[in-house]
Amino acid sequence: MSEVAHIDVDLDPLEPSLQPILDQKSLRWIFVGGKGGVGKTTTSCSLAIQLSKVRESVLLISTDPAHNLSDAFNQKFGKEARKVDGFDNLSAMEIDPTGSIQELLESGDANSAGNPLGGMMQDIAFSIPGVDEAMSFAEVLKQVKSLSYSVIVFDTAPTGHTLRFLQFPTVLEKALGKISQLSGRFGPMLNGILGAQGAPQIDEMMSKLESMREVIAEVSKQFKDAELTTFVCVCIAEFLSLYETERMIQELNSYHIDTHSIVVNQLLFPKKDNECPQCNARRKMQKKYLEQIEELYEDFNVVKCPLLVEEIRGPEKLKQFSEMLITPYQPPEGN
Amino acid sequence: MPSLLLFVVLLSIITSLISTLGAPAINQLLWSLYTRLPTPLHNLVQKNAVLRREVFQLRTQLSGISAQDDFAKWAKIRRVLDKKNAELEASQTQLTTLRSAFDSRAGILRWFITTGLRMFIQFWFSKQPMFWLPQGAVPSYAEWVLSFPRAPRGSVSIQVWGFATGQMVSLLFAIIEQVYGSFFNAAAAPPVEEPMKMAAAPVTPAKEVKKGQ
Fold first, then answer.
1. Looking at CA atoms only, how far is residue B78 from chain A in angstroms?
2. Where are the domains of chain A?
3. A251 is in an annotated binding site
4. Closest approach of A262 to chain B, Cα-based (Å)
5. Residues of A in contact with B86 (CB under 8 A)
6. Whether A64 is catalytic
7. Cβ-defined contact of B75 to A1 (cutoff 8 Å)
8. Which residues contact B71 (CB under 8 A, 6 or more apart)?
9. So what's the architecture of B35-124 in CATH?
10. What span, in angstroms and rounded, lies between the C-alpha atoms of A85 and A67?
11. In chain B, where are the structural domains located?
């Protein structure tokens, strides 16, 4: 197959487990992402559970407007971090973008613009795509400032917006940099024109923007540091999922965000004497793609999780499933 | 001075040639000559050509592999291709900026060689008579016109000579273009269709009548 034969005796394939992530104490931000239906939420919840055993405090944030954390844990979560039942150092938060925007607009427009304008602003703001990413990013900023959790796990939304959100710091930083530069030049002039009325407001806004820019620069730096941030890709052993995963990994590389773990979910391990044609065909296909995954992602930790016979909902089942992320799953004899 | 006369004629011919060939073609020619010289630019152009070939090879390789069956191999080639593509684009933009800078400099050079040189020569030799007209060949006011700016009366000034040669050369070029063009058109045009057989018939009796006479 390849022209040069590689005989790497000392380079065994990396262990198929997420133990390295648990071991890496310096990690602060962990993203779990992958295109729809592959088991992102299950994986992120399981990872958070495992992390809570070896870390001081863990926060699980969902940026998906579909409230899946509540479904996974059978418990209602909101935009304030709430402790998960049965755990003493694991909290979860579901960011509701519509609610946050409403709050923002209400607080902002209370003193200035008239009511009709405020209503229109609300409608416009809701329809801007990517607004949930912006809101979750604002949440990230708050967390960076407060430093109250030792590790934060993000269950990212299944759309392609995920990576745009990760790029948000850079874009915003540039924009804010330009704005503060411009204001630095024209600020005094504007102050002179607007008179004493406008001056304090502009100064206030400028100082707020400046402080925001600093925080964003800090966040951007942290995301690009492999010691602090990592991305776990979740996929299934099918062509489209694989293609999407490869694309996502290349995009992450271009943003210099570290990724070295892949979780392959919903694998079938049918018995040798299994007669179900669908299971056997699917197993064959999955085997083919698993081989490709192993070949392509030699320097990744590839975790293989089986398809279970029951749904993984509720903290108990999640705890059971989370063990499979750490100790590799051994299929029963027969496949 | 005979050499000056010839020089002016030569200059007019060169100017007309340049304007006929067109600025882009000249720039292209100069660029290809310039990049042959052993400068860092030469290396850049070579690297660009190498990159282009590599990208093409990788692309053909990629299209020969089925992503479904050999995903790992396909993805590896794709990664290399993406990297090479990025390099190629960077190299391309670099070359384009260099090329446009070169083009503007070539334009200036061209201007100096043609218009600039012409103006300089006309200024430098403005008092110099080109050749002397035989006495009485033209009336006195014509003599004044022919020696127009500063040449002595009875001679032809360099400006007038330059003007005359310029007109001659452009006329010559126009004629050559026409001949060339019509020659090409004749060669390229489809052969004239044979006259229809029916038309031949009425001609014959007239011919016979003529022969009979």
1. 10
2. 18-108+115-310+320-325
3. no
4. 15
5. none
6. yes
7. no
8. A239, A242, A243, A289, A292, A296
9. Orthogonal Bundle (1.10)
10. 17
11. 1-18+127-176, 35-124
Question: For A250, which of B68, B71, B79 is closest by C-beta distance?
Answer: B79
Count of residues for chain A?
A: 335
Contacts of B189 (CB under 8 A, 6+ apart): none
C-alpha span between B197 and B45 (Å, rounded): 62
Q: Which residues fall within 8 angstroms of residue A89, CB to CB, at 6 or more apart?
A: A52, A55, A56, A57, A58
Show the beta-strand stretches assigned E in A95-228.
151-155
Q: Quick one: tokens of B139?
A: 């009336």
- Helices and strands (H, E) in chain A, number of each type: 11, 8
Q: How far is CA A258 from CA A144, A178, A287, B192, in A?
A: 19, 28, 27, 74
Tokens linked to A195: 């008179």
Q: What's residue A1's pLDDT?
A: 43
A233 beta partners: A33, A262
Exposure on the CB side of residue A169, measured as CA atoms within 13 A: 20
**Does B212 score more than 50 pLDDT?**
no
Q: What is the pLDDT of residues B101-110, one digit of tens each?
A: 988 998 898 8
Residue A26, chain B, CB below 8 Å: the answer is no
Quote the tokens at residue B75: 């993805």
For A257-308, write each residue's pLDDT tens digit: 899 999 999 998 888 888 888 888 999 999 999 999 999 999 999 999 998 8
Mutate which: B62, B66, B71, vs A, most A CBs within 10 A: B71
What pLDDT does B186 receive? 76
- The verdict on whether residue A276 carries a ligand-binding annotation is yes
Dig out the tokens for A27 from the structure. 């990690």
Residues 289-308 of A with CB under 8 A from B: 289, 291-293, 295-296
A86 to chain B nearest CA, in Å?
Answer: 42
Tokens at B190, concatenated: 């489809």
Give the span between the Cα atoms of A53 and A94, in whole angstroms: 22
Indicate the Cα dihedral angle B126, B127, B131, B133, nearest 10°: 110
Query: Which chain A residues have a beta carbon less than 8 Å from that of B75?
Result: 246, 296
Give the 3-state secondary structure of residue A234.
strand
When CB atoms are compared, the residue of A1, A246, A288 closest to B75 is A246
**DSSP 8-state assignment for residue A195:** G
Q: How is residue B43 written in tokens?
A: 């290396």
Q: Assign A301 to helix, strand or coil.
A: strand
Q: What is the pLDDT of residues B122-160, one digit of tens each?
A: 888 888 787 788 877 778 788 878 877 787 877 888 888
Which two three-digit tokens encode residue B9?
């004629």
Class of domain A18-108+115-310+320-325: alpha beta
C-alpha–C-alpha distance, residues A30 and A21, integer Å: 9
Neighbours of B152 (CB within 10 A): 11
Is A39 among the annotated ligand-binding positions?
yes
What's the pTM value of the predicted model, to 2 decimals? 0.71
Residues B158, B126 contacting (CB under 8 angstroms): yes
ipTM above 0.90, yes or no: no
